[in-house]
Amino acid sequence: MNAEHRTVSRIVAILETVAAADSPVTLSALAASLEAPKSSVHGFVRGLLHTGYLVEDGRGYALGAGVHALLGPTGTTLPLLLGETCEEIAVRTGETVTLALRVGERSVVYVHAEPSAFEVCYSPRLRQRRPLLPTSSGKVFLAAAGAEDRARTLEHFSPPVAEAFLAEVEGIRETGLAFNRGETVPDVGAVATGVHIDGALVAGLTVAGPLSRVSSQLERHGRLAQEVVRAEGFGPS
């Protein structure tokens, strides 16, 4: 049985309570519904307001545009849960931080990006499929997959790409980090680590930038990203 993740459960409960209401919901009503202190609920509500998932009209809280933009068929809740985590990593590394989902067997989709502090930087296209390999996040997903899934997936990639991944897979499992050093875009380097909820790998978090700038920093960026992800409760169990 999956263990409850309190942050996830409370955010979902707030959104569901507001969605089910016929009129704006007050903070007191939300706290009563969640059986939680108002101060605790207020912290989550502030985050939801900041990200556009809730709006306040003076009478209480209602669903904001973010729900319709990100929680529909093409959206994801991950930017809400991990936005501040990505922002912290982007600030501390200075590079672009992205969240990627595995979509089907052979694709990843970037669903969120925190921009780099540098004018010359990696600027990913969001909500577009791209091949699982050789992206750094795709390597994280495939390294964590079962043997049958991995073998079936690798059949769809060219022998050089598959062989390169197989040469890296044990290192990825051991360290939790996967690298892309100019394999997809010649002058872009990236390092990825996994994001877990209730022990399950749900996303890849990537730090990326011009290879000429990040080449010697990728391992450090990766370890920093792991530390932040784990501190926020999204590391492996």
From TrEMBL:
Record's Pfam families? HTH_IclR, IclR_C
Identify the InterPro entries for this entry.
Answer: GAF-like_dom_sf, HTH_MetabolicPath_Reg, Tscrpt_reg_IclR_C, Tscrpt_reg_IclR_N, WH-like_DNA-bd_sf, WH_DNA-bd_sf
| Domain called IclR-ED: residue spans | 59-237
What stretch or stretches form a coiled coil here? none
For the HTH iclR-type domain, which residue ranges apply? Answer: 5-65
Query: Keyword set for this entry?
Result: DNA-binding, Transcription, Transcription regulation
Q: What is this protein called?
A: IclR family transcriptional regulator
Source organism: Brevibacterium salitolerans
